[in-house]
Amino acid sequence: MIDFLLNHWIEIFAVITGLLYVYLQIRQNKIMWIVGFISSAMFVYLFFSAKIYAQSAIYVYYVLISVYGYFKWTRIEKQAVIPSVVEGSPSIKGMSRLRSAPLDMTALITISIILSATLGWVLTKTDSPIPWFDGIVAGFSIVATWMVTQKIIQHWYFWIGINLFCVPLYLSQGLYFTALMFLVYFIMSIIGLKEWKKTAIKPQ
Length: 204
What we know:
The structure is a single chain. By secondary structure, this protein is an all-alpha fold. It has one domain (2-197). It has eight helices and two strands, in the order H-H-H-H-E-E-H-H-H-H.
């Protein structure tokens, strides 16, 4: 047991900090970005070692966007009233935004699909055993994480799908703790959506 833990300590630490990140995200606590920075750095190594290259690259993106997200949320917290993305209705300090415009969501989904197809094709040129699955997760994750930085509540729908999709993906690569983490992520994403809805700006 001790040998197993020693051999998997990086994955275990990354999983623990990853779960803490999502908990803080549900609470809308900007410290999540610091925790996410640490967790993402660990996953860069893990996924590269498992030859899941797009996921390794996406976690490099997570490391970088964690810095942007922290300062973005800091600016939001300093504003008593934030212009909302919904027809000019104000978003109060600390509240999540609600972006329900069909054209906006269509654009975000389209970008996700294009990114997924592009990354999947690129990965077919590598020795990745799951290039298209890897590309899909990476493409949608890029867009979903950007949505988090903007506090767009629909990012939870993206994560619900991504997290569920990732469970068999990581099981197939022997990353059992990571697969379990994404199963918990899936459950936490549903909780997060419900919690953010409580503070979301509704269309007038």
